[in-house]
Structures are given as structure tokens and as C-alpha cells.
Amino acid sequence: MAESPPPVLDLPDDLEAAIVALKRERNAVLLAHYYQDDEIQDLADFVGDSLALAQAAARVEADVIAFCGVHFMAETAKILNPETPVVVPDLEAGCSLADGCPPDAFRAFIAEHPGAKVLSYINCSAEVKALSDLICTSSNAVEMVKHFQGEKLIFAPDRHLARWVARESGRDDLIVWQGACIVHEQFSAKELAKLRIRHDGAEVLAHPECDQAVLDQADFIASTTGIIRRAVESPANTLIIATEDGVFHQIRKELAQAGRTKELIQAPGMDESCACNRCPFMRLNTQEKLYLALRDLEPQVTVAPEIIDRARKPLELMLELSR
Ligand code: 13P
Ligand code: SF4
User: Fold this and answer.
1) Regarding the domain delimited by 15-93+282-302, which CATH topology (the fold level of the hierarchy) does it fall under?
2) Of the candidates 93, 115, 177, 282, which lies 20 to 30 Å from 244 by C-alpha distance?
């Protein structure tokens, strides 16, 4: 059977201008995470970490949300804006943490721990949020754990974040779902140690999704927003950064505004031959796909109404507690 020809996409020559025009025409707001390509970040109305993006989504008054990040982030925007179409450049932009915590298996895990409260990292599906008492992000996880003082507590789905949070909050009894981020797990503690010797005086900034051996070498541990802020404000001129290098764009922009430059080095991975510390999901989004999503109003993120009803409560509680 003859293969059908590929669809004619009919892309404009000046994609950026076309996206700006479509945003205006649709009265759309473009929300983007720091791990997006530079040119997507520059087109966005708001760029942020997961908490700031959820807060921005809760304030949206636009007719359409175009979300450039990964699926769980766009789902969060949909849960907070059930009546608003949420379009994404690529529906395949998932997350290893969200994919590694299937709702049925998580429900069974909860059932094994009767009486435990459930605190879920925002990097999980809407269904897992619906099974949770509270949501957290990397920027508020320690505070959110403290909300459950004296209570039996499940923390899901990132075991590295859980270990860091346990240490920071003084809780050594968290019941942890053993998930991980394939990007942050790639940083090599051994190579990092060698790099630090070659760059005496460099400051090491790391995301709490990294392995303990990497975090042990960090001078500063925070969410992407925290890393960007510290990189700009730090007195060090060389920064070794253990997170996705999408954050470099905002750091360079903010430094340029202050008339400064710094040497930014991404922490080394375990396999030099692969760009494994670039998020393969985040980087599925392109300007071309964003243009098509705004033009055709698809693909859209959908969440079942009963899941929205249940997932909204723990998300709104996090937003309330993070004010
Ligand atoms: P932040 O909330 O720190 O931006 O983290 C998002 C993420 O997916 C990290 O891998
Ligand atoms: Fe998920 Fe890791 Fe990609 Fe963040 S960097 S979206 S946690 S796979």
C-alpha cells in the first residue's frame, strides 16, 4: 500500500512574528519553563520554575494557555483552569518522574501504609495528584513536609529530592516512592570532583533531583529559579551548574543587564558521548510546533473532570501555603 504523503504544514518564514501575532489574535498567554530552547523562552509571557508556573497559571485571564514545558506542567495549568484550552507543542513531552509513578501502582503503595498522608512532588500525573493530600515543588518541598509534622508521611515520586528534603527538614521517617529524574541522575560525582579541582574557586550549584554524591559537593542547592538567582548574585566568577543547561539563558540575560559575564559550566555527565543532561522531553518542543499549536489549537491537554476536582484541592493547598 502506498504511504500517504506527509501533511503540508505551511509554515511562515518569520515564525517568531507569526507566533506573536497568533498569541495576540487568540488572546493567548505563553508560559514556559527554564529548560525550553532560548528562542521559546524569549517568546514567552512568563518563564519560571514549576512553582512560579503553577502560580502564574492560577492567575491566568487569557482565552488560551500555550504551555511550553512538559505534560505534568500543562496538566497543572489545566487543573487550575478547567474551562480554558491548554495547548502544547508536543503531547509526547513527558517526564521520567511522572512516567515512573503509575496511578494504579501508587494507589496500591498508599494502601500499604494505612493512615499515612501523601505529599507528591508536582512532577507527577494528574491522577497521582488526585491521590495526594498536598503537592510540593523543589522550591517549597521542605516547608510542605513541615506541614505534616508528627504525621506518617508518604513522599513521591523522587527519591533524591526525598532524601534531600528529609535531611533539610530533620525527618528520617518519610515513606518514599523510588522514582528518579533521568536527567539529574546523569551527573557524575566523580567527574564533578575532578572538575572542581581544575576550577579552584568555582561555586557548585545543584538541583535537589541530583544524586546525594553530587549534592554533597554542592555549595548551593535549589530549584531552577533559586539556581538562576544565586548564579547572578554569587561573588564567584565561575559556576558549575548541576541542572539542565536551559537555565543558562536567563542567567546570561540577567548578567548582561547588569553589564557582567561569568563562566558557566554544566556539571559533567556519566557518559561524555551523550547529551543526557539535556531533558529529552522538554527539548521536544520547538518554535515550529508552538506555531502549529497556536494556529490549530491542538494538541490540547485534557484531564477528566473527576480528576480535576480531586487534583485541584492539594494543588490549591500548596498555592495557599506558598503565598
Ligand atoms: P523546577 O521546579 O526547579 O524548575 O524543576 C522542574 C524540573 O522538572 C526539574 O527537573
Ligand atoms: Fe522530568 Fe527530569 Fe525532564 Fe525535569 S528534567 S521534566 S524531572 S525528566
Assistant:
1) Rossmann fold (3.40.50)
2) 177
Q: Specify the pLDDT at position 2.
A: 61
The pLDDT, as a whole number, for residue 290 is: 98
Three-state SS for 176? strand
Position 6 scores a pLDDT of 65
> Could you give the count of Cα atoms lying within 13 Å of 273 in the half-sphere of its Cβ?
0
Handedness of CA 174, 54, 180, 133 (dihedral sign): positive
pLDDT at position 276, please?
79
Rounded Cα distance between 157 and 149, Å, is: 20
Residue 223 CA to ligand 1 centre (angstroms) = 6
Report residues of the chain scoring pLDDT below 70. Answer: 1-3, 5-8
pLDDT in tens, 153-204: 999 999 999 999 999 999 999 999 999 999 999 999 999 999 999 999 999 9
Parts of the chain belonging to CATH 3.40.50.10800 = 15-93+282-302, 97-180, 184-266
Q: How far is the CA of 102 from the centre of ligand 2 (A)?
A: 16
Q: Which atom in ligand 2 lies closest to the alpha carbon of residue 98?
A: 1
Q: How far is the CA of 95 from the centre of ligand 2 (A)?
A: 5
Which superfamily is assigned to 97-180 in CATH? NadA-like (3.40.50.10800)
For ligand 2, pick from 96, 159, 284 the residue to mutate: most ligand atoms within 8 Å of CB. 96
* 8 A C-beta contact, residue 161 and residue 123: no
